[in-house]
Design goal:
Blueprint lengths: L7 E7 L7 E9 L4 E10 L10 H14 L1 E7 L1 H14 L1
Parallel strand pairs: 1-4
Antiparallel strand pairs: 1-2, 2-3
C-alpha cells in the first residue's frame, strides 16, 4: 500500500560503498490496522569494481522521499553517511 502525504514516514538507511548491499526503507504506522507498514524501499548492489556513489543513489532517493512524502525521521549509521547527511541537512 503506497503512503499518502498525510502518513508520517520513518526512514532507515544502511549504506555500503563496495562490499555489501545498501538499502533505504520507509515505513509508517497504519492506525486503522494497528501495525507498521512498509511504504517504500530501494536496494543497491555495489561492488569493488563499481563502488556506490552515495549522493547519486541514496542521497537522490532520500531527496525524492522528502519531496513527495511526509518524512518525519531518517536514521542511519554515521560511519558511511556522515558527509551525505551533512549535505542533505544543508539542502533542507
Amino acid at each position: 500500500m503506497l503512503p499518502t502525504f498525510e502518513q508520517h514516514l520513518f526512514v532507515g538507511v544502511d549504506a555500503s560503498i563496495k562490499h555489501d548491499c545498501a538499502a533505504v526503507v520507509a515505513a509508517y504506522h497504519d492506525q486503522e490496522q494497528g501495525k507498521v507498514v512498509l511504504a517504500k524501499h530501494r536496494i543497491w548492489y555495489p561492488s569493488p569494481k563499481e563502488p556506490l556513489d552515495l549522493d547519486g543513489t541514496i542521497g537522490d532517493y532520500l531527496r525524492y522521499l522528502h519531496r513527495n512524502y511526509s518524512v518525519q525521521e531518517i536514521d542511519f549509521d554515521p560511519y558511511q553517511m556522515h558527509d551525505l547527511s551533512t549535505r542533505l541537512r544543508s539542502d533542507g
